[in-house]
Here is the input.
Amino acid sequence: MDLKILQEIGLTEGEIKVYIALIKLGSSSTGAIIKEAKVHSSKVYPILDRLIDKGLVSYIKEGKKAIYTANPANSILAYIENKQSQLDNQKKEAKDVMAYLNTLNKTHADTEATLFRGKKGLKAAYELSTKDLKAGDKVYEMFLPPVEKGLSQFFINLVKQLSKKKVIQYMLFDEPCKESEGIKNFKNVKLKVGASPNYSSPAEICVYGNNIIIASSGVDEIITVLIKNKTIADSFKQQFKIIWQQDVVVSHGLNSLINAHEKTYQLKPGEEYVYLGIPKSQPQEHHEYWKKDHERRVKSKIKCRLLFNKDANKEILNNRNKYKGCDARYMPTDIKTPSYMAIFKDTVMMALPKKEPIVVEINNKEIAESFKAYFEAFWKLTKKEK
Here is the structure.
């Protein structure tokens, strides 16, 4: 018969052997027990003492010799009941200790933080933090970077799932990327591309209810921290809203200029952007970028109209007209300005194109429409260059 239950209730292998041997022998001295149980003589006394403590064995003295007897089999049930009583008492004591320990750390009682590593860890963190979201909930995601190929589809699918659940998602991307392109037309997604360098962050921050994810998904070593705390979540939501509501952003450097212009790729095929007041002088690295940009624009089927200052390089203007969908002309009047502006949708981007350009972005529909009207008034006074 399988006697495994005796091990499960707490008897050791040696205790089982000695107990069974005593049942077979009846009353016996240690010599017969050692022989029948096949245990070492040095171990038999400690085993017998433990069996006596457990109420499974008793003994009497016959002179100097101890004679041991196995108690009736129902003593096993008595042993289990006694053990259960001890567990009940321990459980009660443990609850009292837990209550005391909780009073020692009230400050962090409502905070949970978990560290994840690698792609699998990142995916697990996002799935855990979004699983309980429901229709009408608002989530906030900022400083979202382009991610490596292996994660791109995961993020697109995650946003798609939340969109289907009618969760309202506010998303602020650092720059145009596959992820922003893949989700920009989803329902319930409110998206902005191009976070100001003034609000730079080495990691993305996402707030789902009281869950906060801080992740380095745009770098080689992926580390994700999941924090659960209402106060911290509310502070990040407030920070997001301040950044989201900024109408005017000032930044510096060629990357800022490129990031601002890259937003034109949010336009649909057939739509256009316009540039007004392109100056004579621009650094060479700017020219190299614009050449590649026009090749990309043609593939995207986005149109553009460009108004150069009258003293701008004729060769550059003619070069732009060689690209499909581009109509480049000179300003009808001689306005010499070192800066220029781009207008598309509800955005005006102004830039001073020196080696480290100064870039001003205005995200306001009324202002964009007024500058577009200004552009159209000049455009009507121009003629196509031959």
Notes: The chain has three domains: 1-105, 112-246, 250-379.
